[in-house]
Amino acid sequence: MFIPKPSLFSYRFHALLTAFIGWLTFSGHSFASEVEHHQFFSPTLGYDYPYSVYLPDHYDDQATDAYPVVYMLHGSFGTDRDWVSRGNLQQVADRLIAAGHIPPAVFIMPGSRSWWVDGHNEPARSAFFNDLMPHVEATYHVGQERHLRGVAGLSAGGYGALNFALERPELFAAVAALSPASYAPLPPRNSTAWRHPAFRNDQGQFDRELWESLNYTAHLEEYRLRVTPRGTQDEGDLSPVPLYISAGRSDVYDAEFHARIMRQAMERIQPNDVRLDLYPGGHTWKVWRASLPAALNFLFQYVGQEKQPTSPR
């Protein structure tokens, strides 16, 4: 019986198919990690607070050791689903965990109508600390100590993440700000901050005083006092919160310029605990997807590691 010889196209097709399946396995798609979407009533907000959660493969709420947790903040007018649907967080986390670069961890992706501030439209900052974090720690098997927590964000979320770390350094082991919208002294005119309800007063105008009082520059001195030793026998209240910054070189909001200013300001306080990476591209998900693996690798040099020393209160 005549059996036709497979064509060159057939060989190539099967080779490509095999390679694709192998890539899927390597990239973490064979992992049984889960992403869930939930909401709970927030007394601070007076309505439901949405969030998405990444649970690693073999997540066990009865495990002996609590999981590290990283809070991932979305950008202006974003949602709690952005990091997964647009940022590929699940695939990146799966891959880094499978390769042993980061430990199995829980990622919380909250949703906010504000810029993560107690602004004119909602008390987003207070809701995060007073409602979301206690809810997460009561619902999931995550650490409730500083060395098991990190915070990160992109654009307006980077603005929020840095503010959270500077205002509450006792809560976070490290922070990552991707293209942070932490513009000083004011945002550029093309920034959505000018029209965002968080910063528009009762007259519908941009509230410059509110912006300046909430931006990271307003928190630097108090943060410096908390993390800087005050004498040979005094270690300060806390060790610094290491900071990762990234930005696109063609960012339409001049994020690279503002990131460099931020790095300079932070290096005056913690010269060995700041890293800045620059990527080709603009203020886009392409840049944020590219920088996410480096950001997570940086965070987990500190999150999940031994406790950082603190002085007695």
UniProtKB/TrEMBL annotation:
One of the protein's GO biological processes: xylan catabolic process
Q: Which Pfam families match?
A: Esterase
What keywords were assigned to this record?
Carbohydrate metabolism, Glycosidase, Hydrolase, Polysaccharide degradation, Xylan degradation
| GO MF entries | acyltransferase activity, transferring groups other than amino-acyl groups; hydrolase activity, acting on glycosyl bonds
- Answer yes or no on keyword Hydrolase: yes
Name the chain's protein: Endo-1,4-beta-xylanase Z
Q: Which organism is it from?
A: Vreelandella boliviensis LC1
Organismal lineage: Bacteria, Pseudomonadati, Pseudomonadota, Gammaproteobacteria, Oceanospirillales
